[in-house]
Design brief:
This protein has 303 residues and is of the alpha/beta class. It has 2 domains: 159 residues, 3-Layer(aba) Sandwich (Rossmann fold); 109 residues, 3-Layer(aba) Sandwich (Rossmann fold), CATH 3.40.50. Helices cover 43% and strands 14% of the residues. It contains 10 helices and 8 strands. α9 links the parallel β7 and β8. α5 packs antiparallel against α10.
Length: 303
């Protein structure tokens, strides 16, 4: 009888989801149209996560209800997730939608006030413990993805000045952090191009005067770089996926300038999948450390 109980205990220890709670992985992206969302799905399909089920949630766009936060969380729980690590597939941790994710996950008490007038639908309280990681920020995987996109350019374009264009936040303090992180991850490109490199923000959701000033500053930077190089400037988006902003707004904002625009976004480059794996793994390890050392404070966000 004792041997049978011991054998049963060993089986339970080795059975996933029984002795060891399953850790669900939820990748959250802004969301937009079909093409935009599909690139996110292609990215997540490359993720290797064996700790539990994997889901995707879109905050906005065509699938904010059918593949939104509530739907994705409910599906992960139905598939056995007893905890969920949330990885925001976003360029920066310093913005309204990142804080919105932390609010949905129960880490913040209130929705960011600047999102109060947006229709985000209802959200249910977290049914299981959740932990939100940082967004891309200054991750080495972001640097590698940008370098790969730059490497896809023709030889002549790789010698030209480079403009990196990101969406940017509403808040000016957050904007400084966006610029600092993208500048940091682009240092490798700066040394490889041996030419000017400038980081610009569209500030697309900011008040009209803020956005107008941001676009004017971007255009002035392009003209200055073109004049110094006596050549055109290559522009690349630092954005997760492809949609109206990469295909319509950026070209319109740069219209009439000496620009060679490459509209390819970050997704679905494999480095993004490696980053998701790393951030989720770090969060899982941090949680395990906290269980083993309950009296020590262990953090997970690196921003």
């Amino acid at each position: 009888m004792v041997r049978r109980l011991a054998a049963a205990a060993l089986l339970l220890c080795g059975a996933p989801g029984l002795a060891q709670a399953q850790e669900g992985l939820l990748v959250v992206a802004h969301g937009a149209g079909v093409e935009w969302n599909e690139r996110v799905r292609e990215t997540v399909a490359q993720v290797n996560w064996e700790a539990g089920p994997v889901g995707i949630a879109f905050l906005m766009g065509q699938e904010k209800e059918t593949a939104g936060w509530n739907t994705a969380v409910a599906q992960l729980v139905a598939e056995g997730a007893q905890r969920i690590v949330v990885v925001p597939l976003m360029v920066s941790s310093h913005g309204s939608h990142y804080r919105q994710i932390r609010y949905f996950a129960g880490e913040l008490a209130e929705l960011p006030p600047e999102l109060a007038k947006h229709d985000h639908g209802s959200h249910a309280p977290p049914p299981v413990p959740m932990r939100v990681t940082a967004a891309l920020d200054d991750a080495p995987e972001l640097a590698a993805t940008l370098a790969a996109r730059w490497g896809e350019l023709g030889a002549a374009d790789r010698r030209r000045p480079l403009l990196l264009v990101a969406h940017g936040p509403n808040d000016s303090t957050d904007a400084v952090k966006w610029i600092a992180h993208i500048t940091a991850v682009s240092e490798g490109l700066r040394s490889r191009t041996r030419a000017d490199l400038h980081v610009a923000l569209l500030r697309d959701d900011a008040p009209a005067d803020v956005r107008k000033a941001a676009v004017a500053a971007m255009r002035d930077a392009v003209l200055a770089m073109a004049q110094r190089a006596a050549d055109s400037v290559v522009a690349m988006p630092v954005m997760i996926s492809a949609g109206t902003i990469t295909q319509v707004k950026i070209p319109a904002d740069l219209d009439g300038l000496p620009i060679r625009y490459r509209a390819e976004p970050l997704a679905p480059h494999p480095e993004l999948a490696r980053w998701i794996e790393r951030k989720a793994g770090e969060a899982e390890s941090t949680r395990a450390d906290a269980r083993e050392h309950p009296h020590e404070r262990v953090g997970v966000r690196d921003h």
